[in-house]
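ok trying this again, last paste got cut off
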Amino acid sequence: MPSREDFERNRWIAPIAHRVLSPELWRYTRRSVPRGVALGLFAGFIVPVGQIFLAAFLALPARANVSIAALVTFVTNPFTLPFWVVVANRVGRFFLHVDPTGVASAVGSGMDHSGWDTLIWFAQSAGFAAVGFIVLAIVASALGYVLSGLIWRSWIGRKHRARRLRHAQARAEREARAREAGASLEAAA
């Protein structure tokens, strides 16, 4: 994962260094984290190669957290890609309203039985997967934005409640000590 210092030393980023090194792109805030998650999921599903660079590039104008955007792209990696291809193919077929048996019978009933029918089947499946990946990119980024915002809000709310509880307990302890000190002064007088 590239750090801010890595970007500072990179000579290729020098023309846009003022934008890349902006502190708001590296802070974890309630706005930048959900944006980073959404852009990372979008880039992870829409581009099979170079998705980290796309996520980092998209994070600049969106003022999203660059490190979160780059990290979330690993939802599609070489180990999970076969699973996502199958899911994208099925989602694409569903959205294009294609019956899988109809495609198989249309391809199987071709006149010449050379490699063309296999190539046609592969092209159709690749088209379904491409549509599926577009749908997955849009839906996953929207869900990622909403869920990460809710999780962030819950986490910060829990931290604020714990801090308020600690402050209330400390205040109660101070007041109890003050009462004890006042009672001991009254007893001594």
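PB: full thing came through this time. Helices lie at 4-9, 17-20, 32-46, 51-62, 66-72, 81-96, 100-108, 116-188.
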